[in-house]
Design goal:
Elements lengths: L18 E13 L3 E7 L4 E7 L5 H8 L6 E10 L7 E12 L13 H6 L1 H4 L3 H23 L3 E2 L5 E2 L11 E4 L2 E5 L4 H11 L1 E9 L12 E10 L3 H22 L1 H7 L3 H4 L7 E4 H9 L1 H33 L4 H36 L9 H9 L5 E4 L22 E6 L4 E8 L4 H10 L8 H5 L8 E7 H9 L12 E2 L2 E2 L2
Parallel strand pairs: 3-5, 6-10, 12-13
Antiparallel strand pairs: 1-2, 1-4, 2-3, 4-5, 7-9, 8-9, 10-11, 11-16, 13-14, 14-15, 15-16, 17-18
Helix pairs in contact: 4-6, 4-7, 4-15, 10-11
The protein binds one RNA strand of 76 nucleotides through strand 1, strand 2, strand 3, helix 2 and strand 11.
Length: 503
RNA sequence: UCCCCGAUAGCUCAACCGGUAGAGCGAGCGGCUGUUAACCGCUAGGUUGUAGGUUCGAGCCCUACUCGGGGAGCCA
């Protein structure tokens, strides 16, 4: 079967003045009696198709007038540039053919709740926002592969069924593997280390599974992670690699998906500043900031701004309510009622932030050296910076057994997290790996892990051990940060969350 | 596992002190030759999450449960 469309919407700019045929779905339509405006999407973009009475057969005009949202159709017409149209081009329709009629499409052009949209995920894809995010995700993944492929890295596919524990036993999904318990991978890193001793620079890229009982906007039980691993590298080398890598991804999205970012409301100006070097803080410095006056002031200022915001919202609501008590035309009342709903939703969100602010301030102030940084602590640090922040040298006891101890300060590990700016939080975690056989063995025992299971991993330290390290970047968190999407469940096609799989 | 919030029309939300449940969008019909989540008129659409309780009377108060949202811990 040949493509029924002669032309895709993204090609319209090269076809001005020509007659073309488009095939797509009816995204929205407006009618003005003798002229109709059909917004059609075809996967490559949106196009306004203008249907004038008399320019098409009367029965076709009538059929289009009653066509439901998301009906599929093919339209033929003349391409012309018009500032008033989405995308700047429109089609003056001369012929149209309905392919699949639709009645009662559930997702309307008005707002919907998260749960409703998730239950209609298979249809939600068609919405503008999801379409934009999907295209950004595509670019992010392509940029990830290109960066490593162009810089001498070899792709290694690490297993999804694993016999080893990377992070924490409790966060693993167990599967019955012909009667034997195995686990779904939570990192490819350990396997990757063995590959790094062969190829030097390697990376793995695939789905990762974590059974953490986390119900937050930055958690999924199944997510995609890319992990490079490099032989003969130190912590500074890793930080440099990570900042070049992240900067490259952002630059690619800015180059390939600018209009999507605009539609999504991303902060393009701020993304353009994402160039090396990023900020560097040690964990100890981060703790000093969190427990110091700077954070007290910062949180107080934030609270003040939130309260202002709340006051403004309340004032707006009161004013609108006052207006409603007067005598008004019905349409005016309705309009005010709609505005009230929006203001109340904003107010509720602001109230939640106000409620959380003191809790987070308290958590930060009460932070003691030795704990891992909490989500809210990361948020505070990242909110204080306009570029990503590396936090390095965490207490080794709070970190995984494979991380190398800093020989200059045995209390800390040679590791780092990368926090995306403006409150997005952690998108990368990485470290230099412990390359001393006896130290690693001791840590494995200390964690209560079985050294026999890790015999092969210990072998890597017996035969030509070298300093090496790597990191993992979460794809969905990166996409969420770049697209300014609040929840990472919107950044993966079919999200799997704690206790919740929709379709 | 813990803390906070919520559940009312297909969807998003109103309903003052407890007194017969209302809008917008969507659907259907009609009007309008440049609309931008178009607009205007009409029509249809409800066992207020479930089970109890208090009351002359419960969407509203009380108890339990179910489901959903946000956050903590943990993490990419």
């Amino acid at each position: 079967m040949t493509n029924q469309a002669g032309t895709y919407i993204e090609q319209l700019k090269d076809n001005v003045g020509k007659q073309v045929k488009l095939a797509g779905w009816l995204y929205n339509s407006r009618s003005s009696g003798k002229v109709q405006f059909l917004i059609i999407r075809d996967g490559t973009g949106l196009c306004q198709c203008v249907v004038e009475k008399g320019k098409v057969p009367d029965d076709v005009f009538e059929q289009l007038r009653h066509l439901g949202q998301e009906s599929s159709l093919a339209v033929t017409g003349l391409v012309r540039a018009d500032e008033r149209s989405v995308g700047g081009y429109e089609l003056a329709v001369t012929a149209a053919e309905v392919i699949g009629r639709t009645e009662g499409y559930p997702i309307t052009p008005k707002s919907h709740g998260v749960d409703f949209l998730m239950r209609h995920r298979h249809l939600h894809f068609r919405s503008q926002r999801q379409w934009c995010i999907g295209r950004v995700r595509h670019t992010v993944i392509d940029a990830i592969r290109r960066f490593f492929n162009d810089n001498g890295y070899v792709l290694i596919d690490t297993p999804i069924f694993t016999t080893i524990v990377g992070e924490d036993q409790t966060s693993l999904f167990e599967v019955d593997y012909f009667g034997e318990p195995l686990h779904l991978t939570q990192t490819g890193q350990l396997y990757l280390e063995s590959a790094a001793m062969s190829f030097g620079r390697v990376y793995c890229f695939g789905p990762t599974f974590r059974a953490e009982k986390s119900k937050t906007r930055r958690h999924l039980t199944e997510f995609w992670m890319v992990e490079p691993e490099v032989a003969f590298i130190d912590l500074d080398g890793l930080l440099e690699l990570a900042e070049n890598f992240v900067s490259y991804i952002v630059a690619r999205v800015l180059a390939d998906n600018r209009s999507e970012l605009e539609t999504l409301g991303s902060d393009i100006e701020s993304l353009e500043k994402m160039t090396p070097p990023f900020y560097r803080l040690t964990y100890t410095e981060a703790v000093e900031i969190l427990t110091g006056q700077r954070t007290v002031d910062f949180m107080a200022e934030q609270l003040r701004q939130l309260r202002d915001q709340r006051q403004r919202a309340k004032g707006g609501i009161a004013e609108l309510e006052q207006q409603l008590t007067g005598s008004l035309k019905q349409w005016k009342r309705d309009k005010i009622a709609a505005e009230l709903i929006e203001l109340r939703a904003d107010l509720a969100e602001t109230n939640t932030k106000i409620e959380n602010n003191p809790k987070h301030a308290e958590l930060a102030a009460g932070f003691r050296w030795g704990k891992d940084l909490g989500g809210s602590d990361e948020t505070i640090i990242s909110q204080m910076h306009d570029k990503p922040v590396f936090v390095t040298h965490y207490p080794k006891d709070a970190k995984a057994f494979y991380m190398k101890t800093d020989r200059a300060d045995e209390k800390v590990a040679l590791n780092f997290d990368l926090l995306a700016p403006a409150g997005f939080g952690e998108i990368i975690g990485g470290s230099v790996r412990e390359d001393d056989h006896d130290r690693l063995l001791a840590r494995i025992k200390q964690e209560g892990l079985n050294p026999e299971t890790y015999a092969w991993y210990l072998d890597l330290r017996k035969y030509g051990s070298v300093p090496h390290g790597g990191f993992g970047l979460g794809v969905e968190r990166t996409v969420a940060w770049i697209t300014a999407e609040k929840h990472i469940r919107q950044c993966i096609p079919f999200p799997r969350m704690m206790d919740k799989v929709y379709i």
